[in-house]
Amino acid sequence: MNRYKIEGGYPLRGKTEVCGAKNAALPILAATIINGRKSIIHNCPDLSDITSIIEILKYLGCKVERRGKDVTVDSSTFISRTIPHFAMKQTRSSTIFAGALLARNGYAFIPGSGGCHIGARPIDLHLKGFKALGADITFQPDGIVCRAKHLRACRIELDFPSVGATENLMIASSLTPATTIITNAAMEPEIVNLAQYLRSVGAHIKGDGTSEIHIKGTLSPKDAEVTVIPDRIVASTYASAVASAGGSVEICGISPGLLSPFLAVMRRMGMSINCTKNGFTICKNSGLVNLPYVCTGPYPLFPTDCQPMLVAAMTTAYGFGAVREKIFENRFGHCSRLNDMGANVTVRGRTALIRGVPKLKGANVDACDLRCGAALTVAALGAGGTTYISNTHYIDRGYENLVSELAKIGAKAERID
Ligand code: EPZ
To answer: Ligand 1 center to residue 111 CA distance, Å?
Structure first.
């Protein structure tokens, strides 16, 4: 069942509930290695990337149980093993686990990840931070070995506010008793969520959510508990779906403030957005107008993960618009596929130039990565005719039952063969 069949042209109406954030749950699950005790993670989304990380935790000797949205990890039985290559590819998990493995047992092997469809995904900032913490970094033909008998607190200046590097360094320094300072740190809400977990383990953390984070680790880690924040990118995807297909949907379980950079663009294009007790309602009352220029950037700028879905919504908005992708070097795979559906998008380097057309048409398209698949789904909902989207396993990495959720709010969408 790896294809979606979507018959476009049906406005969306009703309510949808946003699941826990994939990009918050992944580093938190990796961090459960460090306390050597129990961690309870509430509101953990049920996604293939999460399943992969849980499989790796089990491979590393941890006991993991899922009861609905609650995942319990017991890392008292952790055993130091190299993460198998098969697991690395899909979630780049060896990178996600590196800081936790270094903190727990002073050793982490990172196979050559080779990046992914959206970019090279280098890890130089992670390694520079590990080195500053006192780790020896050895480059081998098959990957990178990080070793540290004892990590020592230090000051780390990130050349770029990398989300993953910030998370890895926060986790790596959470068992080091003195204070590590990370400057030019990423400020995403997912960083704050990870800090909540690490505080629960016993680390003293200040400045999370700002560009300077202070981490004073603990020598006696405790049982821990945290609730995963709602997924702002999933919420933005549903909002983009309304922008494409029309209608009015209440997106529940999330504060609109978590996705304010995205909603600001939606409002400027002509969508109406109102806060509600449980989240916000987004309506398309008239045709949308393209903005001349939108640029992605580190939080609190416009999120790169929302760029593909925004472009999809812009393809049928009035006029000319440009979207500049400043985070990843190859994140326009959706543009050629949108053109196969009748869009008018030209990619020039890191900028997509969009000239709005009245309507897209159904087509056979293939998802090339997670957010490309989401963008094609958004476009298909507003297209005339039927669209078939293949490679939907990419979409399963980041969305819980996307088509069945869309069908509940009026879409003619289903998963087939
Ligand atoms: C996280 O990836 C997210 N993934 C990405 O979400 C998200 O797009 C990205 O942050 C930016 O917000 C998870 O949280 C699992 P980065 P990450 O390190 O940590 C460069 C999705 O769709 N860089 O902030 O890998 C890098 O090349 C995924 O859910 C270095 O140069 O992102 C990129 O250009 C996609 N050296 C930029 O920084 C490094 O050592 C941002 O990368 C690290 C990164």
So the answer is: 18
Q: Could you read off the pLDDT of 342-373 as tens digits, one per residue?
A: 999 999 999 999 999 999 999 999 999 999 99
Answer for the pair 235, 276: CB distance below 8 angstroms, yes or no.
Answer: no
Closest CA to 272 of 308, 245, 248: 248
Angle separating helix axes 189-201 and 163-172, nearest 10 degrees: 10
33 neighbors 57 (Cβ within 8 angstroms): yes
Nearest to 163 by CA among 95, 103, 226: 95
**Extended beta strands in 277-350, E state:** 279-284, 294-295, 320-324, 345-348
* Nearest residue to 406 (alpha-carbon basis) of 241, 283, 282, 278: 241
Residue 43 near residue 22, CB atoms below 8 Å: no
Residue 163 one-letter amino acid: V
Please, are residues 410 and 388 in contact by the beta-carbon 8 Å criterion? Answer: no
Q: Residue 416: how many CB atoms within 10 A of its CB?
A: 11
Provide the mean pLDDT of the chain: 95
Query: What's the residue count for the chain?
Result: 417
Q: Count how many Cα atoms sit within 13 Å of the Cα of residue 107 in the half-sphere of its side chain.
A: 6
Calpha distance 164→147 (Å, rounded): 19
Write down the pTM of the prediction: 0.97
**Number of CB atoms found within 10 A of residue 290's CB:** 23
Pocket perturbation via mutation, ligand 1, pick of 28, 47, 163 by most ligand atoms within 8 A of CB: 163
State the distance from the centre of ligand 1 to the C-alpha of 162, rounded, in angstroms: 6
